[in-house]
Amino acid sequence: MNAPRPQAVIWLASYPRSGNTFLRTLIANYFSGLERPLSLEELMLSTWGEHVEDIWQGITGKNPVQRSHTDEFYARPAYFAQLRARIPNQLRLVKTHTPYVNMDGKPAFSFVPGDRLIHVIRHPCDVAISFAHYFGIGLDEAIRRLTTRDTCHTDHPQMGHELIGSWSQHARSWIGMREIPGFGIRYVDLATRTAPVLADIVRFLGHQPVPARIDAAIGFSRFERLRAQEDAAGFIENAGRGNQSFFREGRPGQWQEVLSPAQSQRLFDADPELIDRFAFATDLAA
User: Fold this and answer.
1) Residue 51 vs residues 130, 140, 254: alpha-carbon distances, Å
2) What CA–CA distance (Å, rounded) separates 177 from 163?
3) Which residues pair with 93 in a beta bridge?
4) Which pLDDT score, from 0 to 100, does residue 240 have?
5) CB contact set of 201 (below 8 Å; sequence gap of 6+)
6) What is the pLDDT of residues 78-121, one digit of tens each?
7) How many angstroms separate the CA atoms of 239 and 230, rounded?
8) Is 263 within 8 Å of 257 (Cβ atoms)?
């Protein structure tokens, strides 16, 4: 008897603190068909990711503290095979902060026919600010991590290891991906030109955008509304991080007010070609 064909998913890839949650909130609210915003709990149920602990333990036989980064990397094909089988046959969103890389010839991702990718890239200077707040570290340490290849997170022991790489390494890995259809967006465009960008995303996913649903999804996904939901009921992705809000601000261009010239230059110098390609040095709103 033939094994069932793996179900396709929509990969949502970004460096941490680059707008992935805002992206999936917009998509989930658009496709929900509801006349109200999804709760944060409903949002979590609409999107899957790399930290379903019972799958990891079933494959490796180890808890997150016992597992090494290599344990998790080599188990990724089995992990995602089980994840695909578990996701309901509805909106099949899978969030990832892992770069599209190989280790010892083994890829971090195994795609199947029908998979699609949406990749969001954010100005590294704004990423550094949000990164520092979220992980409770200084700006200089955040910049060091963003400019260090093969950076691996262990800041949240109960979530295991998370390979993110440097900002440049991560961005280039997904920009160069050619295995499945991909759609790339800058976070600044998602934040400031939300309606046309969301309409383009809906088209990329094979649907004709409905203007009224676009407008509703944008209203349901406003940062103030998400922040109010988090304040009222909490948010699982922010668990264990004290009083810091997950939905802090999301405003493009903060780096011009917060970073010193030397700090921003360190991020620019890490990959000047990519900075120029995405107009991050010249677009003051980026």
Assistant:
1) 21, 28, 30
2) 17
3) 10, 47
4) 46
5) 26, 27, 118, 183, 185
6) 999 999 999 987 789 999 999 999 999 999 999 999 999 999 99
7) 11
8) no
Q: How far apart are CA 61 and CA 59, in angstroms?
A: 6
Measure Cα distances from 101 to 107, 108, 109, 214 in Å. 6, 6, 8, 34
Domains annotated for the chain, with CATH where assigned, are 10-277 (3.40.50.300)
Q: At 207, which amino acid appears?
A: H
What pLDDT is stored for residue 284 in this prediction? 46
User: Would you put residue 243 in left (φ > 0), alpha (ψ -120 to 50) or beta?
Assistant: alpha
Residue 33, pLDDT > 70, answer yes
Tell whether the model's pLDDT for residue 239 goes beyond 50.
no
pTM of the predicted model as reported, rounded to 2 decimal places? 0.90
pLDDT on residue 159: 64
pLDDT of residue 276 exceeding 50: yes
What is the mean pLDDT of the segment spanning 256-267? 95
> Mean pLDDT throughout 9-22?
96
Cα–Cα distance measured from residue 229 to residue 38, given in angstroms and rounded to the nearest whole number? 10
